[in-house]
Backbone:
């Protein structure tokens, strides 16, 4: 659950500021630790940033907001030396700097957690945390593995993560990996910490721990740039908010001067309802039937029924086994027991599942869902080549039309459908995957975290789309850690905890409290 | 220790166990196999391979290959030999130094071309394989290095030594130990793993990616040069074909030793075991009078087995859910 705090009054803020060591400028105001002035960046024909200003002060948490593709990640990459700006300048403590490599930015004590995972799967956790800066001891100096593991464990504990520092990162889940990266950014003890969508894969508890850590750093005088799409997180955390739209600076204000509506207006340029209201239809014939599905050590005794026109939400914390169930239903992962039937037909392999009309939009879309080098059009047409092609011959015109249609429905921000997803922003890559599976027009759709990393406007758009699809008779299994989303869209909610279904609730009885209780507390397993 | 780390450890044990089994089987057929002189000859046989494989492992950890090492061995051996032929015997340390320098030059050319010009290593070093072999012909100038050209100080290294272990073997062992220490205890060594495991992430972390690639090729070249001197010490002569084909045996040893051909994982211990296994098979087959063709077939089968085992190990993990960037063969 999001952590609501007493709003910090301006007076309290002033008090906090008193503890913060500040460098006084000529005019008496604090000189920003890191500042971007009139920074522009053009990629090919895309203007990613157009004369953007940003200033980070010591001891503040500064949120950077904007729609998918607004240029947030591009700005962070410039601030940490991955890209060089085409125009404009960067200043550290008021002095102009030129970061031509990430190492140069690191020398100025700037640390970053990138949006895309950047870990080393073959190396252990501790080494990922300290890569390039491993502690040394002895004479001649050599890497002190024991100290490195101990320090990594301490950092992870600070984040509330219990991870074996000697485990290989390739064996970790997405959420665990994200914590490892966060620990790496923290370990630099930097003066400027940039975090690009750090909470996407975390449980509410982990988010709470992360925020506690970030606030602690702020109180010690660290400047933090925080990027995210969940507004309640932004309001809980940020002191100041800068908004970008289409690569341009919109405004930069104290968080207290914004409310949800004004923020959305600044980002999108118009008013958007925050949550879509579901139009409920009477569920039709049973479509998907899962009985006694189990995988040793991962989940057990999962029963599931999906009827046409029905949306069933699968709630629970990250790591409860929801993704694993979905993968087993689709046939990607081994099952140890149980059956999966779609309209009476037994499904065993993903090929059978797809032929029978089951589609699965995976959670880790950047890795599993999108061919980053192929044009968007080819990505979208990939699962339905048979339908798009004419006697085995591809028809690029049809592919493009299809991609354009779904791109519009999802408000995809791309130059055109020939662009490669590699060049898209993180959120827009996700929309490509969504488009790809929706274009198959499946009978049963499994969505794993469909709006993770997607901006507010597009999120409402996706909710509306899910609703439309259900109204048209599709059966949808919605896995989401976003509780308001699950509650707003689902007809029934199944809650999982530690590999078991711990509650099956009708939408009328599914309150946030009951779902969270089933997701966290000791509860009796109930038959679904 | 994680499950996979345990598996990897078990894999090295399995390799050691397999070698032990093989030794027992061969010794049961022919008692001479375990004689001191035969064991020494096995050690001498794998000396060159072990030194070269230790360096090749570093190259392969970065997702690259160095195919030019066989030719470099030939170039350094013939260069040192021809110098001695024309200007009289060099002192042994100087001869070794010249050999290393020759190899280092080749390695630096490889490294800069691959890191800075971004030419795939498998293509560039394939080209260098031929170019360097051409240089051997030029240096030899129609001749060859005969046994009277090679300083006695060099060939002495192949005999005697403490506990009957020739100094030559100790030199190779020192190379392997240095590689072990470098890979395990230095930041540059850990960077070798990181760069191979995820080059994009390495760049984002500000690791010196191209410097690391230059470094491993320079080391590989220098060790190949050293191996040229070892070659002269061991055989006492060098034809212009000296060292040809070595690169394949060396890569085989590294792969059999459990290193991934996709970079990022592999160990010196495994690599040495891989060398030992190939050495035992080669020698054992000769002792048993099995034809050379069967030996080649056995090497081939081992390589396939090792690659399949690597693929299976990767599948055991949850690759789809893993957080690191996907592996793609860039070489
Ligand atoms: N390497 C690149 N080549 C071409 N275009 C790029 C590249 N990187 C970013 N862009 C473009 O720049 C724009 C801004 O992208 P950016 O990743 O900064 O967005 P973002 O605000 O981080 O979005 P999200 O919320 O989805 O992460 C997008 O239109 C994107 O397509
Ligand atoms: Mg981004």
Residues:
């Amino acid at each position: 659950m999001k952590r609501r705090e007493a709003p910090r009054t301006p007076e309290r803020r002033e008090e906090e500021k008193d503890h913060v060591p500040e460098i006084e400028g000529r005019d008496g105001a604090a000189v920003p630790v890191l500042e971007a002035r009139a920074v522009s960046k053009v990629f090919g024909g895309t203007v990613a940033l157009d004369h953007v200003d940003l200033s980070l002060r010591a001891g503040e948490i500064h949120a950077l907001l904007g729609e998918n593709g607004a240029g947030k990640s591009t700005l962070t990459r410039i601030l940490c030396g991955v890209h060089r700006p085409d125009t404009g300048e960067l200043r550290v403590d008021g002095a102009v700097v030129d970061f031509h490599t990430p190492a140069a930015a690191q020398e100025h004590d700037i640390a970053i957690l990138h949006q895309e995972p950047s870990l080393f799967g073959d190396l252990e956790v501790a080494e990922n945390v300290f890569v390039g800066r491993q502690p040394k001891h002895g004479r001649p100096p050599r890497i002190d593995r024991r100290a490195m593991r101990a320090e990594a464990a301490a950092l992870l504990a600070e984040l509330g993560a219990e991870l074996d520092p000697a485990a290989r990162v390739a064996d970790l889940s997405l959420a665990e990996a994200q914590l490892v990266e966060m620990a790496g950014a923290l370990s630099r003890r930097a003066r400027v910490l940039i975090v690009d969508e750090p909470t996407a894969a975390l449980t509410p508890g982990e988010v709470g721990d992360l925020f506690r850590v970030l606030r602690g750093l702020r109180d010690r005088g660290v400047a933090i740039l925080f990027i995210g799409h969940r507004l309640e997180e932004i309001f809980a955390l940020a002191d100041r908010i800068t908004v970008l739209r289409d690569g341009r600076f919109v405004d930069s204000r104290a968080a207290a001067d914004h409310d949800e509506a004004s923020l959305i207006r600044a980002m999108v340029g118009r008013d958007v309802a925050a949550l879509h209201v579901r139009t409920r239809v009477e569920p039709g014939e049973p479509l998907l039937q899962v009985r006694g599905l189990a995988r040793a050590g991962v989940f057990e005794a999962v029963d599931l029924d999906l009827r046409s026109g029905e949306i069933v939400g699968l709630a629970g914390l990250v790591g409860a086994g929801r993704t694993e169930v979905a993968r087993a239903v689709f046939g990607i992962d081994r099952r140890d027991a149980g059956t999966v039937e779609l309209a009476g037909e037994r499904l065993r392999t993903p090929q059978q599942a797809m032929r029978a009309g089951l589609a699965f939009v995976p959670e880790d879309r950047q890795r599993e869902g999108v061919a980053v080098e192929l044009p968007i059009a080819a990505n979208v047409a990939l699962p339905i080549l048979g339908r798009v092609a004419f006697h085995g011959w591809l028809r690029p015109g049809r592919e493009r039309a299809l991609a354009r249609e779904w791109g519009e429905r999802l408000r995809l921000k791309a130059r055109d459908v020939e662009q490669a997803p590699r060049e898209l922003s993180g959120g827009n890559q996700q929309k490509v995957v969504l488009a790809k599976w929706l274009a198959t027009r499946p009978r049963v759709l499994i969505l794993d975290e469909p709006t993770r990393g997607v901006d507010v406007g597009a999120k409402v758009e996706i909710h509306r789309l899910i609703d439309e699809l259900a109204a048209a008779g599709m059966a949808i299994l919605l896995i989401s850690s976003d509780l308001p989303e699950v509650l707003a869209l689902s007809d029934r909610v199944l809650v999982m905890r530690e590999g078991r279904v711990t509650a099956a609730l009708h939408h009328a009885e599914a309150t946030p409290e009951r779902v969270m209780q089933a997701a966290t507390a000791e509860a009796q397993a109930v038959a679904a | 220790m994680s499950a996979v780390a345990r598996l990897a450890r078990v894999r090295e044990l399995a390799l050691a166990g397999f070698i032990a089994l093989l030794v027992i089987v061969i010794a049961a057929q022919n008692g001479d196999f375990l004689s001191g002189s035969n064991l020494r000859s096995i050690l001498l046989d794998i000396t060159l391979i072990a030194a070269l494989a230790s360096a090749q492992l570093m190259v392969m950890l970065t997702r690259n290959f160095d195919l030019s090492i066989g030719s470099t061995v030939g170039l350094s051996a013939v260069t040192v030999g021809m110098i001695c032929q024309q200007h009289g015997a060099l002192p042994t340390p100087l001869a070794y130094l010249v050999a290393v320098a020759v190899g280092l030059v080749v390695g630096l050319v490889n490294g800069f071309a691959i890191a800075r010009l971004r030419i795939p290593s498998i293509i560039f070093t394939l080209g260098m394989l031929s170019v360097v072999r051409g240089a051997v012909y030029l240096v030899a100038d129609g001749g060859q290095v005969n046994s009277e050209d090679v300083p006695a100080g060099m060939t002495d290294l192949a005999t005697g030594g403490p506990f009957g272990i020739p100094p030559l073997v100790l030199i190779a062992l020192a190379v392997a130990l240095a590689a072990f220490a470098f890979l395990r205890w230095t930041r540059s060594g850990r960077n070798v793993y990181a760069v191979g495991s995820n080059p994009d992430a390495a760049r984002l972390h500000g690791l010196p990616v191209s410097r690391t690639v230059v470094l491993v090729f320079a080391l590989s070249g220098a060790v190949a040069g050293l191996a040229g001197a070892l070659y002269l010490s061991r055989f006492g002569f060098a034809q212009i074909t000296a060292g040809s084909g070595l690169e394949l045996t060396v890569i085989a040893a590294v792969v059999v030793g459990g290193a991934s051909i996709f970079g990022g994982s592999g160990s010196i211990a495994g690599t040495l075991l891989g060398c030992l296994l190939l050495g035992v098979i080669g020698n054992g087959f000769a002792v048993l009078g099995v034809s050379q063709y069967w030996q080649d077939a056995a090497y081939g089968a081992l390589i396939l087995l090792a690659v399949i085992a690597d693929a299976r190990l990767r599948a055991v993990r949850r690759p789809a859910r893993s957080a690191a960037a996907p592996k793609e063969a860039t070489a």
Remarks:
- Confidence is low (pLDDT under 50) at residues 1-28, 523-528 of chain A.
- Residues 34 and 95 of chain A are 9 Å apart (CA to CA).
- The first strand of chain A starts at residue 34 and ends at 43.
- Residues A 72-73, 115, 196, 425-426 surround magnesium ion (ligand 2) (CB under 6 Å).
